[in-house]
Design a protein that fits this description.
The complex is a heterodimer of chains A (115) and B (113). Chain A has 115 residues and is an all-beta fold. Chain A is 0% helix and 52% strand. By secondary structure, chain B is mostly beta strands. Classes of the chains: A mainly beta (115), B mainly beta (113). At the A-B interface, strand 5, strand 9 and strand 10 of A face strand 5, strand 9 and strand 10 of B.
């Protein structure tokens, strides 16, 4: 158990809908990262927040947005969903701001299925 | 374009042998490189981190090398066990300020008894 929690575990929804994925980092970790993993694309970095501020962006679509709250939990909002958004969404956390020079702890993921 | 390449074909080895996995990268100049293990349907688990000025890093049965001239990292598991069967992902810093970790697509390792 990494100490990172994600809810829900599974989400099934229809095209055009909007969903919110939630992540609680490990106790004491200030950084939260979001990743998307699909069969054809592998693990893709979406966005990084550190202590409430956005620090880095990856290939995140404009239909997707995220935020980190004062209690350090984070939410990833996906809107106008398309079939191609079906994937596993992982949240990870680390102790400080360096995503590449720190070990990242991954949550169990949320499996999103768009029908 | 920037690429991180790992062998997409599964690596099959016998228990007790050494598994060697390769990670090659193009158009990156990483200062850090990490290796993760991922089991089906689960989140990746951190294994090792190596810095550009370190040639080699070891942890128990694991060894990682980092050759910035060849733009390659090798990941070795010695005395492999069936429990080592998983997908192994390499990742490196993909942007300024070390904020972003970019992952390869992984290599599946199958260790048979």
């Amino acid at each position: 158990d990494s100490g990172v929690t994600q809810t829900p575990k599974h989400l099934i929804t229809a095209t055009g809908q909007r969903v919110t994925l939630r992540c609680s980092p490990r106790s004491g970790d200030l950084s939260v990262y979001w990743y998307q993993q699909s069969l054809d694309q592998g693990l893709q970095f979406l966005i990084h927040y550190y202590n409430g501020e956005e620090r880095a962006k990856g290939n995140i679509l404009e239909r997707f947005s995220a935020q980190q709250f004062p209690d350090l939990h984070s939410e990833l909002n996906l809107s106008s969903l398309e079939l191609g958004d079906s994937a596993l969404y992982f949240c990870a956390s680390s102790a400080d701001s360096g995503g590449a020079y720190n070990e990242q702890f991954f949550g169990p993921g949320t499996r999103l299925t768009v029908l | 374009s920037q690429k991180i390449e790992q062998n997409s074909e599964a690596l099959n080895i016998q228990e007790g042998k050494t598994a060697t996995l390769t990670c090659n990268y193009t158009n990156y100049s990483p200062a850090y490189l990490q290796w993760y293990r991922q089991d089906p349907g689960r989140g990746p688990v951190f294994l090792l981190l190596i810095r550009e000025n370190e040639k080699e890093k070891r942890k128990e049965r694991l060894k990682v090398t980092f050759d910035t001239t060849l733009k390659q990292s090798l990941f070795h598991i010695t005395a492999s066990q069936p429990a080592d069967s998983a997908t192994y992902l390499c990742a490196l810093d993909g942007g300024t300020g070390f904020q972003k970790l970019v992952f390869g697509t992984g290599t599946r390792l199958l260790v048979s008894p």
